[in-house]
Write a structure and sequence with these properties.
It comes from Microbacterium oleivorans. By secondary structure, the protein is α/β, with parallel strands linked by helices. It has two domains: 140 residues, Rossmann fold (3-Layer(aba) Sandwich), CATH 3.40.50; 70 residues, no CATH class. It contains nine helices and twelve strands. Helix 4 packs across helix 5. It is globular, with a radius of gyration of 19 Å.
Length: 253
């Protein structure tokens, strides 16, 4: 069973930012959260991660409400990379990735050789083995994002939550990062701004507006001309290529 949201609503500062949203990803799939700024994507990820508790509804992991699970236990199954995941301490890349082993540490410290092997594997998955001894602040933006994903992978999660992981990356690094995400043997929920990237890499999408889910399903079924104009207020032409939609936007008059 995967991480499931059942009719969750959440208020921040008295404002309803997630309004009766349900989400049930297929295990091993990539689900894109789409919608304009302020639509509730990041807020929904906070609720899924257990950082914020819903005012109504519930989030389940293996059928159990995550509010009743210890943070440490939850972190062994659910990992997250936020928009501004960074560190002010001048750590090496290996040190950053090793932070992902924190939920698995015993009262007597780390698990030694096993932790080392898991960190090595996470670095390799992210294509950062050659950079493992580099200082964090010497990395490019794309490398830092990959290091944060490697840190999340070192948690050995079954669920990976990503909030705008392609922000501030050039096209090449966007494609490389999402290709990596797509290859991971985990269930991924990822908030994205770029609809064409979502169409290219996601198995399903959930489109949000004003905190509510307005459409959900495979990209080819959901990302239509009418839906995009309704939610984003822009005109476009959607064509289907190889089963995936391709979106050409019309500049405003």
């Amino acid at each position: 069973m995967s991480l499931v949201a059942e009719h969750v609503s959440w208020r921040r500062g008295g404002t309803l930012v997630v309004d009766d949203v349900s989400l049930a990803p297929t295990p091993g799939s990539v689900v894109g959260l789409l919608g304009p700024n302020g639509s509730g994507k990041s807020s929904l990820l906070r609720v899924l991660q257990g950082i914020s508790h819903p005012d109504a509804g519930r989030v389940l992991l293996d059928g159990s409400d995550i509010r009743h699970q210890r943070r440490r236990d939850l972190a062994r199954s659910v990992a997250a990379v936020t928009q501004h995941a960074t560190t002010e301490v001048d750590l090496t890349v290996r040190d950053v990735v090793r932070l992902g082993r924190t939920p698995h540490a015993s009262l007597w410290g780390s698990n030694g050789a096993r932790d080392d092997a898991i960190v090595d594997a996470a670095l390799a998955q992210a294509g950062l083995t050659a950079k493992s001894d580099s200082r964090w602040h010497t990395l490019s933006g794309g490398e830092q994002q990959r290091a944060q994903i490697a840190r999340a992978l070192a948690q050995e999660p079954r669920e990976l939550l990503l909030d705008e992981p392609t922000n501030h990356l050039d096209i090449r690094h966007q494609l490389e990062l999402l290709t990596l995400v797509r290859s991971l043997p985990v269930t991924v929920v990822v908030a994205l701004h770029d609809l064409n990237l979502a169409a290219m890499f996601c198995d399903e999408v959930l489109v949000m507006a004003a905190g509510r889910a307005v459409a959900a399903g495979p990209p080819a079924e959901v990302l239509t001309d009418g839906l995009i104009e309704e939610v984003y207020g822009v005109k476009c032409r959607v064509t289907i290529d190889g089963g995936r939609p391709s979106i050409a936007f019309t500049p405003p008059a």
